[in-house]
Write a structure and sequence with these properties.
mainly alpha; DUF2273 domain-containing protein; 3 helices
């Protein structure tokens, strides 16, 4: 939800910079875009973060025949 809000603010600011011919509004829009890009989280857990005893490297070694 936060990502959608930041992206919509960025698009609105860039559009306003073309309408009002003010460059600083477009800069604010680009800052909102970068803020949206760098604050977006990826909530998908990888196998190492699931607190399992077997890490992905150990599973690969076992499947490859190396123990």
């Amino acid at each position: 939800m936060k990502l959608l809000l930041f992206i919509s603010c960025a698009v609105a600011c860039v559009a306003l910079s073309f309408a009002w011919r003010e460059a600083w509004i477009g800069g604010v829009g680009l800052l909102f875009g970068f803020l949206a890009m760098f604050t977006d989280r990826d909530d998908v857990q990888v196998d190492d973060e699931k607190r399992s005893y077997e890490t992905t490297k150990s599973v690969r070694n076992m499947r490859g025949g190396r123990r």
